[in-house]
Amino acid sequence: VGDKKKTYIVHMAKYQMPESFEHHLHWYDSSLRSVSDSAEMIYAYNNVVHGFSTRLTTEEAQRLEAQPGILAVVPEMRYELH
Amino acid sequence: TTRSPQFLGLDKNANLYPESNSVSEVIIGVLDTGVWPESKSFDDTGLGPVPSSWKGECESGTNFSASNCNRKLIGARFFSKGYEATLGPIDESKESRSPRDDDGHGTHTASTAAGSVVENASLFGYASGTARGMAARARVAAYKVCWAGGCFSSDIVAAMDKAVEDNVNVMSMSLGGGVSDYYKDSVATGAFAAMEKGILVSCSAGNAGPSPFSLSNTSPWITTVGAGTLDRDFPAYVSLGDAKNFSGVSLYRGKSLPGTLLPFIYAANASNSGNGNLCMTGTLIPEKVAGKVVFCDRGVNPRVQKGAVVKAAGGIGMVLANTAANGEELVADSHLLPATAVGQKSGDIIRKYLVSDPKPTVTILFEGTKLGIEPSPVVAAFSSRGPNSITPQLLKPDIIAPGVNILAGWSKSVGPSGLAIDDRRVDFNIISGTSMSCPHVSGLAALIKGAHPDWSPAAIRSALMTTAYTAYKNGQKIQDIATGKPSTPFDHGAGHVDPVSALNPGLVYDLTVDDYLNFLCALNYTPSQINSLARKDFTCDSKKKYSVNDLNYPSFAVVFDGVLGGGGSGSSVVKHTRTLTNVGSPGTYKVSISSETKSVKISVEPESLSFTGANEKKSYTVTFTSNGSAAPSSAEGFGRIEWSDGKHVVGSPIAFSWT
Description:
The complex is a heterodimer.
Chain A: E1 6-12, H1 24-33, E2 41-45, E3 51-56, H2 58-65, E4 70-75, E5 78-81
Antiparallel strand pairs in A: 1-3, 1-4, 2-3
Chain B: H1 4-7, E1 27-32, E2 73-78, H2 81-87, H3 105-114, E3 118-123, E4 126-131, E5 139-144, E6 146-147, E7 150-152, H4 153-166, E8 170-173, E9 175-176, H5 186-196, E10 200-204, E11 223-228, E12 232-233, E13 236-240, E14 245-246, E15 248-249, E16 262-266, H6 286-289, E17 293-297, H7 303-312, E18 317-321, E19 339-342, H8 344-356, E20 361-366, E21 370-371, E22 399-402, E23 406-409, E24 428-431, H9 434-451, H10 457-466, E25 479-480, E26 485-486, H11 489-492, H12 499-502, E27 507-508, H13 513-522, H14 527-534, E28 556-560, E29 573-582, E30 587-595, E31 600-605, E32 608-611, E33 617-626, E34 636-644, E35 649-658
Parallel strand pairs in B: 1-5, 1-8, 2-5, 8-10, 10-11, 11-22, 16-17, 17-18, 18-19, 28-35
Antiparallel strand pairs in B: 3-4, 6-7, 12-21, 13-14, 13-20, 15-19, 16-20, 23-24, 25-26, 27-29, 29-33, 30-32, 30-34, 31-33, 34-35
């Protein structure tokens, strides 16, 4: 179960982006690469969230959440029409 | 929609709203199942150029191209990457990988909010009239985020992200998820950023009523909308062989039942299944059902599917009875066979007749559309109820609006029942839910935005809330159909929306981004949690005393700690501070207080507020004192605070709860 990938929304502290990165997307990608070689960004968000969505294992999500500059790694929720 | 413009007074007061110019500059983004662009509700006749503020696009895909947009439907996008990442590629033979609506829900909500005027609209002749959205000249942008397999938060956030970038003015979201803290809830997170940009986000409260604590979308920067009825009904009477008659409702149109009494059977007696009474797929025995009208109990599977199950088994009609879960609330459906829905009380009597009479018989008489039903509105049983389980000190829902038996535009991909076997195609459909009430408020908010372009989302919501009504013209309080008793602020929030009064509220309770950040500090959110929502480095001031009770909200939810029954030792005095902003003419407002709860003393300081100029702000403090020795047996109570200058009434509901 732990190896099964799930979608997460990763919230980044954009204001903490290291100066070594020229663009925030490079920083997002680098953060993601630090926990997974295979994970891909589903979306990069610019306005309502600073961050991205991706599919990770539980362990990868936990490791990502411990990285500097990561505010939250929130599991995807399913919504329903009312 | 038909009828709701009249029910809300928009027809008689059309000249009050600046329909022609400023409202056509307002853009409503609808996040839903997409849009059916060929619907007459999206005809752009008479509309001027697309607002210059618009940055959006009309995306192409399956059966959808940029040419499907026009001066009414100015944008359409779809967001499926999150859905496909979880469930695999979309089966394009079953749903369109494009903004096209294969479900109907998105077309219904978008046309309710801002559909153009369409004459001679109806569903099979039911609810006939001139259909229009609440803001008939506002522009629509459709963001498809819901698919056959559900609505995924990664897609919803992506759509909100784009809608902000596209410059929508109102976001209408008739969807919700489970209960979670605001920083974990994607809709709340996205709505926070939208609010920062001056976008009003209107969301449905949910259909989990009448259970308490059943609300979705409870954050204070969202306008949360519950559902009430219109003064319209679709009666279809049940006439039994013992000469008793019962009221029901139906949207069935087709071959009528013979005029004679017909054999009648209880589904539970025509099934070998333990839940045969529910008319679930494959549970009815055709030999027992053939040629008969079948009595089914509501619950578990969709109402229209029960009719389809009866029809497939050879039944010729259906009487669908509510159980205790739904009480007397009647929701009309466009069944595939002659069928009607009856309330719990009628259902109980009919069920007794079925088991006591050796040869029960029945017929159903369809009466079409009836207007002027009273009382109306009543709070729908399904409409989700407070208290707010995330922040009990914040009263939700904010308001109720029409959400029962609403006619609006529909997709030609699907029949009105939504069933795969339904090959009927309609321009308009009649459905119910807080999904339907939400876009009513979205459209009304657009009207107010058009009239007052400089008002913040909080000011617009305040105008809608403080002018809402809680009583009928005869003075009786708005009923809750779930109980048949007067509804409470936990059911209706500030009351039923009154858009004509909302245009000129006199005073508003405004809120800034900082107010909401202070609210988050009062909730003791961690810096990471706050910064996830705020997207900036914000730190709560450790020297400052934050209180949820000081959020400048247009309603009051007062929580007394530990004094229920008079035995507690906790705080029995709660203070709330509010600031009113003058958006009308100079005047002196005086406060009046009413309370159904004798055990709480309410005092307001000062009792009079004088405003000499526009946008002038004045604050007041309300002290609620719970008398422990006379504490109530119930854990809740209600009251109301009103400020009036003789011309305007600025009302706020109060809900007390004891923990």
